[in-house]
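Dear colleague,

Following up on Tuesday's group meeting, I ran the structure prediction for the two-component complex that the binding team flagged. I've pasted the input sequences exactly as they went in, so you can double-check that nothing got truncated or mislabelled along the way. The structure tokens for the whole assembly follow below. Feel free to forward this to whoever is handling the docking comparison.

Inputs:
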Amino acid sequence: EAEVAQSPRYKITEKSQAVAFWCDPISGHATLYWYRQILGQGPELLVQFQDESVVDDSQLPKDRFSAERLKGVDSTLKIQPAELGDSAMYLCASSLRGGYGYTFGSGTRLTVV
Amino acid sequence: QQQVKQSPQSLIVQKGGIPIINCAYENTAFDYFPWYQQFPGKGPALLIAIRPDVSEKKEGRFTISFNKSAKQFSLHIMDSQPGDSATYFCAPSLDTDKLIFGTGTRLQVFP
């Protein structure tokens, strides 16, 4: 069964350091999403890509977060500098156009100390 | 997330029981109403979904009931099993695309 791959699975970083997460969507999925899930809450959309273009980054804290999907395949989410409040699960999802086949990866658990 | 309210926050049932989880939304433009299941350390996985043109959908032991006028939909799990113990999220959306997740319901099913 096709999966969305994410790495690393866990990341511990110190406050003010830079951190990056990687996502490889299901082959052929044009749409890629990054979500943040704070412990005990539902996921919240940070950014949505259609191929290599950003279609929605309205909830992305752009002063410290950046996301790219240069060739329209895999994607990187970066935080610089990390803050204590950034501790959360970062989930990547992908889908075909129109949202069909929406599939989440297992996420990266970030702890900022 | 304030657009979507989910209840209860947690639920404990015995094996064979029928837990019911409710979701209330505000945006009348939503046209896709899914429920997701999430196990610890995993991403959410689609469980069952409904479109607003039907009032009920059943897939195996899982049923969605949809009340458009009340802006609510619910998940029923028939003959619940310990393996159903997980966190459940409603996530209504526009065009199947931008999911707006509820706050989650933690279900525990005891043998």
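The longest strand of chain A covers residues 88-95.

Cheers,
M.
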